[in-house]
Amino acid sequence: MPGPGPHLLYAMGTGLALTTLSNGRFSPHHTLFYTINAFFGPDIGSFSEWLDSTLGFGFGSKLADLIHHPFYYVLFPGLPLCLLYSLVSRVLLQRRLLDSFSRVPLTRKQCWFLVSAGSFSHFFLDHLFEVI
After folding, report:
1. Please, what's the b/e burial string for 61-91 (b: 16 or more CB within 10 A of its CB; e: otherwise)?
2. Residue 45 CB: number of other CB atoms within 10 A?
3. Are 65 and 52 in contact (CB under 8 A)?
4. Potential cystine with 41: which of 5, 37, 77, 111 (Cβ 3.0-4.6 Å)?
5. Up-side HSE of residue 80: CA atoms within 13 Å toward CB?
6. Closest among 99, 127, 125, 130 to 14, alpha carbons compared
7. Angstrom distance (rounded) from CA 77 to CA 80
8. At residue 5, does pLDDT exceed 90?
9. How far is CA 100 from the centre of its chain?
10. CA distance 8 to 22
11. How many other C-beta atoms lie within 10 A of the C-beta of residue 100?
12. What percent of the chain has pLDDT over 90?
């Protein structure tokens, strides 16, 4: 598995390409949430495993196996994350901390698609580096 650098560069490069190809409809707003999920998303399981080894709850390895999966990540943590991202999107736009073409916050459905896309691109790179 690659480190955080390739995940970050690939996701931000893909976001920039999509922004260019869509004439700005795929905005930095979308790229932010896509990149967060491609960069950190499925590796939350590894973090939970480390946290479990530190605190000793006894379920970190099972949680890591459940979360670090292309489809399970989209279902289990992805659904609560899409609600959180939708709320954060609204707050960031209201405070003018994030630029968006339409000034409309992301919907839950859009956030869920961005979580899914980030997860799949994360695993694409993971599997690509396993083959090499």
Report:
1. eebbebbbbeebbbeebbeebbeebbebbee
2. 22
3. no
4. 37
5. 5
6. 125
7. 6
8. no
9. 19
10. 21
11. 17
12. 39
**How high is the mean pLDDT of the chain?**
86
Confidence of residue 82 (pLDDT cuts 50, 70, 90): very high
pTM score of the predicted model: 0.86
Angstrom distance (rounded) from CA 109 to CA 99: 20
Q: Which of 49, 47, 48, 120 is nearest to 78 (CA)?
A: 120
Residues 6+ apart with CB under 8 A from 14: 34, 38, 121
Packing angle of the helix pair 28-39, 108-131 (nearest 10 deg): 50
C-alpha distances (whole Å) from 103 to each of 28, 44, 83, 97, 125 are: 12, 30, 19, 11, 32
